[in-house]
Write a structure and sequence with these properties.
The complex is a heterodimer. By secondary structure, chain A is an all-alpha fold. Helix content of chain A is 75%, strand content 0%. Chain A has helices spanning 4-26, 35-53, 59-62, 65-85, 99-128. In chain A, helix 1 (4-26) runs antiparallel to helix 2, helix 2 packs parallel to helix 5 and helix 4 packs antiparallel against helix 5. In chain B, helix 3 packs across helix 4. By secondary structure, chain B is mainly alpha-helical. Chain B has four helices and no strands. Chain B folds into two domains: 1-54; 63-99. Classes of the chains: A mainly alpha, B mainly alpha. Chains A and B meet through helix 4 and helix 5 of A and helix 3 and helix 4 of B.
Chain lengths: 130, 99
């Protein structure tokens, strides 16, 4: 059990880190940031809770998190394949301005990176310290 | 004994080599532009993708196929760490159980 100060600060900081991660993820095309960075920042909030409160606190979130890792890569592939289906090349532009697809791909990448980093962290916390 | 000394020398030389390689990057400046017409094209026309962020425009629009490879590399590396890591940890546990 961690001390009261560590637990309180972890609980207080996590929402702000989550919000910053979502901002980085959604505003990638118009400001510094993007899918990879947003995903890592989102994952850092969960890792903070994982460190300060233990695994029980985020159990419902991390139950099937490996699934999101595979799902992200798969959706990215499917999105690229739409171009082949409607005639054209891989990752063809669906709209004249590809802003929508940029944000969509950002969200997909962020989900994938988030799941991957959380899975890695859980794995190392559980197995690494022996 | 000799092996550990050799390992240390190897590690030290590796670190020095990496430092020298990284220091090469500091000598680059914005005057040394890549001789490619795409360089100017990206800088002038990246607004056509709708993204103000040039990095984002290249990463997810002009070079989305490369980003797909990047995502796959991350996926495969995480899958590999978890599969191999479980193998190693379980192997250690078996050794500890019956020596």
């Amino acid at each position: 059990m961690k001390s009261l100060i560590v637990r309180t600060f972890g609980r207080a900081l996590a929402p702000f880190i989550l919000m910053y991660g979502i901002y980085l993820m959604l505003f990638g095309p118009v400001s510094p940031g993007g899918g990879f960075q947003g995903g890592v920042v989102l994952a850092s909030a969960v890792v903070l809770i994982l460190v300060t409160h233990g695994k029980e606190r985020v159990r419902r979130l991390i139950e099937n998190i490996e699934w999101f890792d595979s799902f992200g890569a798969f959706v990215f592939l499917l999105f690229g394949s739409i171009g082949i289906l409607i005639g054209g090349s891989f990752f063809v532009n669906l709209t004249p301005y590809s802003m929508t697809s940029l944000v969509f791909l950002d969200v997909i990448i962020a989900m994938k990176v988030f799941a991957g980093i959380v899975v890695l962290s859980i794995f190392f916390f559980e197995r690494g310290v022996e | 004994m000799i092996e550990s000394v050799f390992k240390r020398i190897l590690t030290a030389s590796l670190v020095i080599a990496i430092c020298i390689a990284l220091l090469q990057g500091m000598s680059l400046s914005y005057e040394d532009k890549a001789e490619s017409p795409m360089f100017e094209y990206y800088l002038e026309n990246h607004e056509e993708t709708g993204a103000v962020n040039l990095v984002e425009a290249i990463l997810l629009d002009y070079r989305a196929y490369d980003t797909f490879g990047e995502v796959l590399v991350l996926y495969i590396s995480i899958a590999g760490i978890i599969i191999l890591g479980k193998e190693i940890v379980e192997g250690k546990e078996e050794e500890a159980a019956d020596p």
